[in-house]
Amino acid sequence: MPLIPNQRRLFDIPDDVAYFNTATMGPMTKASVEAGQKGLARKLQPWHIQETDFFADTERLRPLLAELIGADTDGIAFSPSVSYSLATAAKNLPLSKGQEILILEDQFPSNVYTWRDLASATGATLRTVGTRGNETLSDALLSAIGPDTGLVACGHIRWTDGALIDLAAVGTRCREVGAALVLDLTQSCGALQFDVKTIQPDFVAVAAYKWLLAPYGTGFLYVAPQHRGGTPLEQNWITREGASNFARLIDYTDAYAPGAQRFDMGERSNFALLPAFEEAVRTVLGWGVANIEETLGARNAALADRLAEIGMSCLAEGTRGGHYLCPALPESVPADLTARLKEDGVFVSRRGDRLRITQHLFTTESDTDRFVARLAHHLVT
Ligand SMILES: Cc1ncc(COP(=O)(O)O)c(C=O)c1O
Fold first, then answer.
1. The domain spanning residue 132 has which CATH number?
2. How remote is the CA of residue 155 from the centroid of ligand 1, in Å?
3. pTM
4. By CB count within 10 A, which of 29, 67, 302, 377 is most buried?
5. For residue 184, which atom of ligand 1 is closest to its CA?
């Protein structure tokens, strides 16, 4: 597969900015921002907004979101955040006393508090899985899954260090013991290939403002077929059967729109955000997730070699997401390292004792050269 050529021209990133922080906030393309601005401007003249418009944007986007994860369109619901999606999952996964909920050490807080809450409501036990010795995080999780496991909640990679989870193996093990599998793919969707047909999760949550390069406040929830008759977090008019007939909305009905639409968030038909979200997803699908994975993987492998030359080691290839590079920082690292790099026009984040380096297709060779040179400089001064 050919690597994707640099896409900087699509973004509004000046030459003196080296942005290695997609994992915090993916930049939007200029086209995506324009689509959002046009959408927002529709409210200047609301008389042009048609009743059918409440459905058009969502139903154009739903199949595209499904395509990202190999799902059927019916399995996709709109969600503003991971916490919202996981709250929906928690509401629809009955657990009982004696069962365990497995999460990973240092997991993202939205994917921890939800399960703390479910554990205290049901009497289930929340167990945090960490590694011992040279064990990989994925192996640690696999060996923790057993007959008492009621639910496993994790991601494709860990957000702090990029440690890769073998989701195919985790999915198989969950099915063997009858445990539910809930995934937060925020730090991988759009950058690592994933297929719900292979992994067979119960729920998948994705916030789209990072690797999908979409606006903040956009995202989606995948719901497996066996949960599509479940209970949504909120009771909204547009998720009901016949909602397109505005004149008859007061003919209240208990029937929902088909598939996972019952789980759509309130005011899902956001005229400003959805066009930008759609443009972003079309761009990612146009590049192709497999091609993005390969391109970022190759670039990060080369960058990891350069970091090794200045004494910084990353997780080995195959045990980390290829799009994610998190070298351990030496003990002597200046406390203000990321602030110093920012002054050099290099944007990167620190998570615990690691530097989190997340480039994308907008990253140029000269960005990388500057980053490595400035990092090497600050590590010795
Ligand atoms: C792994 C992961 N999940 C979720 C989120 C965002 O969560 P929420 O949408 O609940 O704000 C982040 C943000 O950094 C993240 O890294």
1. 3.40.640.10
2. 11
3. 0.97
4. 29
5. 3
